[in-house]
Design a protein that fits this description.
- The complex is a heterodimer of chains A (151) and B (85).
- With 151 residues, chain A is mainly β.
- Chain A is built from 3 helices and 9 strands; from the N terminus they run ββββααβββββα.
- Chain A has one domain (2-148): BH3618-like (Roll), CATH 2.30.290.10.
- Chain A has helices at 50-53, 63-68, 142-148; strands at 2-7, 20-25, 32-37, 44-48, 79-86, 95-96, 102-105, 110-113, 125-126.
- In chain A, strands 1, 2, 3, 4, 5, 6, 7, 8 and 9 form a 9-stranded antiparallel β-sheet that branches.
- Chain A starts with a strand and ends with a helix.
- With 85 residues, chain B is α+β, with helices and mostly antiparallel strands.
- Chain B has a 3-stranded antiparallel β-sheet with strand order 1-2-3, with no helix packed on it.
- Chain B is elongated and about 60 Å long.
- The termini of chain B are far apart.
- The chains are: A mainly beta (151), B alpha+beta (85).
- At the A-B interface, strand 3, strand 4, helix 2, strand 5 and helix 3 of A face helix 1 and helix 2 of B.
């Protein structure tokens, strides 16, 4: 995996003392990556590219986040966005946190988990479209299903 | 904890840069106006706590897990091709 170290000046909620995370991206193209704490803490998040799973996902960065990420006006191209994934025992029930995306400034190598004030998005959005078990496939119109997701 | 009484339109200052003003009081709901420097993040506490909890719950591994990655990538590909639906 390729790795790039990012500094999170305030850590992330729940792990406020961890200031450095490395973004580990698989060699082959993938909508997933890992965000592992540098050091001995043993903290490692699976993250997903939210725009792959939720093409309409959007938010505006507040001034506080822009300042913390040292993001100047017009430098939006330096931004990478990831959403933290929670993988429960039943993998089908995997969720992503769209309310608090991880925003990286690839130029300054700064990161922040931004808490959106926009309540359209939840802390636990299902990553995969809900469906029945493999034993009972549900016959549903694909378009209708797709439009149900994560709104 | 310092406890102060305030009326509508009165404020408190935290340091010399943060002002919290009582905008309205309706029943048991108090509306606050907050003025703070741009580098200060302001959020509802329960939102912050829910994100703390979600992060702790999400940090289930100590290193990348190739099996997990392969499995979820497969599911994502199937999702994209509509096979799951």
């Amino acid at each position: 995996m390729n790795n790039v170290v990012y500094t999170f000046p305030r850590g992330v909620p729940g792990f406020e003392d961890i200031r450095e995370f490395e973004l580990l991206t698989p060699e082959e193209p993938s909508p997933f990556a890992y965000l592992r704490a540098v050091g001995e803490s043993g903290v490692c998040f699976l993250v997903a590219d939210p725009f792959v799973f939720f093409p309409d996902y959007e938010f505006e960065l507040g001034d506080d986040a822009k300042a913390e990420l040292d993001l100047a006006e017009g430098r939006e191209g330096d931004v990478q966005v990831w959403a933290i994934v929670t993988v429960p025992e039943n993998v089908r029930e995997t969720t992503v946190n769209l309310l608090a995306p991880v925003v990286l400034n690839t130029r300054s190598r700064l990161g922040k988990q931004v808490i959106l004030h926009d309540s359209r998005y939840a802390v636990k959005c299902p990553l995969f479209v809900p469906r029945g078990s493999a034993a009972e496939p549900i016959q549903t119109d694909a378009g209708e299903r797709a439009s149900e997701r994560g709104r | 904890m310092l406890v102060l009484s305030r009326k509508r339109n009165e404020s408190i200052m935290i340091g010399d840069e943060i002002e919290i003003k009582i905008v309205a009081v309706e029943g048991d709901t108090v509306r606050l106006g907050i003025e703070a420097p741009r580098h200060v993040s302001v959020y509802r506490k329960e939102v912050y706590l829910s994100i703390q909890n979600a992060n702790r719950e999400a940090a289930t591994r100590s290193a990348p897990d190739p099996d997990e990655l392969a499995r979820l990538s497969r599911m994502a590909r199937r999702e994209e091709s509509g096979e799951n639906r």
